[in-house]
Amino acid sequence: MTGFDIIFFWVARMMMLGLYFTGDVPFKEVYMHTLVRDSKGQKMSKSKGNVIDPLYLIDQYGADAVRYTLASMAAPGRDIKLGEDHVSGSRNFTTKI
User: Fold this and answer.
1) DSSP letters of 17-82?
2) Residue 1 in this model has a pLDDT that exceeds 70
């Protein structure tokens, strides 16, 4: 499983090196997933400093709110714009259910 942004850097190189060193393809299937972006639409990155610690979100809002947020925002071919406000809203919604 990988994001589309690292296909060349990770998956393609693993394929090439696997074939070169072992003569065999290291894997036959690659599952791609969407990117999780910050609330401004920027790719989340440790080097940019715009990541949100999932354990912090779980401590603040609960695991159900985090799960619901990610599940409700997921759609094929569409990136997720994740912000603390989304998780807060999901907590309020799941509390009412």
Assistant:
1) HHHHHHSS-S-S---EEPPEE-TTSPBP-TTTT----HHHHHHHH-HHHHHHHHHHH-BTTB-EE-
2) no
